[in-house]
Amino acid sequence: MGFNCGIVGLPNVGKSTLFNALTQTIAAQAANFPFCTIEPNTGRVAVPDERLDKLVEMVHPKNVVPSQLEFVDIAGLVKGASKGEGLGNQFLANIREVDAVIHVLRCFENDNITHVEGSVDPVRDAEIVETELMLADLESLEKRLDQTVKKARGGDKEAKTRLAVMEPVMSALKAGRPARSAAPAESDREACREYRMLQLLTAKPVLYVCNVDEESAASGNEFSRRVEEKAKTENAPAVIISAEIESEVAQLESADEKKEFLASLGLAETGLAKIIRAGYKLLGLETYFTAGPKEVRAWTFVKGSKAPQCAGIIHSDFERGFIRAETIAYDDFVKYGGEQGCKEAGKMRSEGKDYVVQDGDLLNFLFNV
Fold first, then answer.
1. Cα separations (Å) of 21 from 134, 308, 359?
2. pLDDT at 252 over 70
3. Of 133, 239, 241, 311, which cross-links 365 as Cys (Cβ 3.0–4.6 Å)?
């Protein structure tokens, strides 16, 4: 299990360049004209995790499987997309399928790269995309409103809940705010279920990515600072990267070369690492591990999941026939030199169905089907 992020933005902001760098492929054509990406390109990358590297060093398995992260490079959007302008219909359909949105914003000046709006203004660009998505959501809700009202008046319990969810969301959209600003409380499970079933574009969590020039990669610039201010008001994350630097890093073969190159630019890590960390936090994701001589593997789960649910990520039989989970905290595994050392130190625990799995746990599931 990983997560799926759609890379969106106006044409010519660096989406495809970033996609190519992140996936280390040339699947997306990076060109200096609008709509060079027509069909959504999809790429899977391994999630870098120093803990996984340490486990491999300790266990010496025959096989290593990291978590996977999926990126989808979606065609550039323009004004009028909600009405089908440009490649609007494709854009809206593609974005509906992803779990989260990586909104790439151009935060650099370059006379050789055309900007569809004629000038560089990342906050304006963000608002163009958001407005089109909000208009599409509002149209979708308005089409369903009359039928929902009729069912609710007729005593349909689900329709009443749906209407109670739709009304504040529609008010927010009309006021120029995304659907997520009017999401129901997590404690109201029925309302949350109806909210998810609406499949609204602006309900998806957003990560703003400020694409800056090489000179600004370490500390940002005035453009990126304006984006960070916007993100802060929305309680959304924002990261600074240089797609051009990511392209150069992707071409280097060894980890040492990459580290040395980044250090020369005043960077401690790649943009990929920044995006993954921010994305994990955005979606409330964590990692547990399984480790043995045959394989060391990282598994992604939703924070707060219980042991049977995490077992089901491996195989549905594990969840259906769950008995218990032999559990070792990652820090203990390292401190005591592996599984045997943890057993001897009393650091292996037997956890039942109500155990909430913690980030970094090493788990061995016992089940009976």
1. 30, 37, 28
2. yes
3. 311
Per-residue pLDDT tens over the stretch 186-217:
889 999 999 999 999 999 999 999 999 999 99
Euclidean distance between CA atoms 81 and 94, whole angstroms: 13
CA distance 42 to 29: 13
> How far apart (Å, rounded) are the C-alpha atoms in residues 240 and 274?
8
Count the Cβ atoms, other than its own, within 10 Å of residue 359: 14
Could you tell me the CA-to-CA distances from 161 to 35, 110, 140, 173, 191 in Å, in that order?
Answer: 40, 50, 18, 19, 6
Q: DSSP H helical segments within the chain, as ranges?
A: 15-23, 50-59, 88-96, 122-153, 157-174, 189-197, 222-233, 243-251, 255-264, 271-283, 307-314, 316-320, 330-335, 339-344
H-helix or E-strand spanning residue 350: strand 349-351
CB within 8 A of 291, min separation 6: which ones?
A: 55, 59, 61, 297, 333, 339, 362
Other beta carbons within 10 angstroms of residue 233's beta carbon come to 7
Backbone angles phi, psi at 49, to 5 degrees: -150, 115
Q: Are strands 238-241 and 63-65 parallel, antiparallel or unpaired?
A: unpaired
d(CA 95, CA 156): 31
Q: What whole-number distance in Å separates Cα of residue 357 and Cα of residue 266?
A: 37
Distance, CA of 290 to CA of 297 (rounded, Å): 5
Among 8, 3, 41, CA closest to 211 = 8
**84 vs 23, 92, 140, CA distance in Å?**
29, 9, 14
Distance of CA 193 to the CA centre of its chain: 21
Give the largest Cα separation in the chain, rounded. 68
Nearest alpha carbon to residue 3 among 51, 94, 73, 68: 68
Task: Please tell me the pTM assigned to this model.
Answer: 0.83
**Amino acid letter, residue 342:** C
